[in-house]
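Entry 14. Ran structure prediction on the chain below.
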Amino acid sequence: MEVADVLHAQGDRFVERHPWLSVQQRTVLRALMRCRTAALGGHVDHCGACGHRAISYNSCRNRHCPKCQAQARQRWLTARERELLDVSYVHVVFTLPHALVPLCHRNAALVYRLLFQASAATLLEVAADPRHLGAAIGFLSILHTWGQTLVRHPHVHCVVPAGGFSPDRQRWIRPQYAGFFLPVKILSRVFRGKFVAALRRAYVRDELDLAGATATLRDPTGWRAFVNGLFDTDWVVYAKPAFGGAAAVLRYLGRYIPIASPSVITD
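Output, structure tokens:
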């Protein structure tokens, strides 16, 4: 039994009972139903040795399709596992506060780009500080835009070797204490500062689409109050040893990765 079988049996009924489905959602359902069927065309495979012929139907290549993503995801996972170093790893997560969620609706590309940039710059800066690690680190960052309850919850997962190169690149520096990498309170505050500074620059450059629920932010007074309010709470940063190793974290994250979208690797 496959997802496509369920959709073939009940898909039309489901769409009729849920008229609120968006065009994008309907497109996904249609793609999953048509994947590797005659509806998408195909080609004939011919064996030159025995003469056997077989028809192979085309894939929908939709990033939500379990048929299309399974092999691509495994190839991605295998490639990432080959890049792992023979050291311990840390799983770090940077999360945007709920107050920024309305901005994501009309400014997703910009906000997520700032999330990537601010979290990466934070890791590099704090790790390079001799008071914390004093090393140049590398990591892999993966964006998740939704939580397990399917509520918009933008956050970035970072798979980070627990250590890095000395400034002269001659030796490997490990954290001073086992199970500890970088102070999360420092990461949180630096991350918040970098993100808010970038958001302010985007506002000055008129790069933000402020409409609908964010229309009040067009007024400079309302904008300043909004941005200043972002400093009222600590931003959530999670940093723990990668239990089961980095490969286990990659396997967990790989279940939620649309392979067509890029992840960011920082050396």
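The first helix runs from residue 3 to 17. Will compare against last week's run tomorrow.
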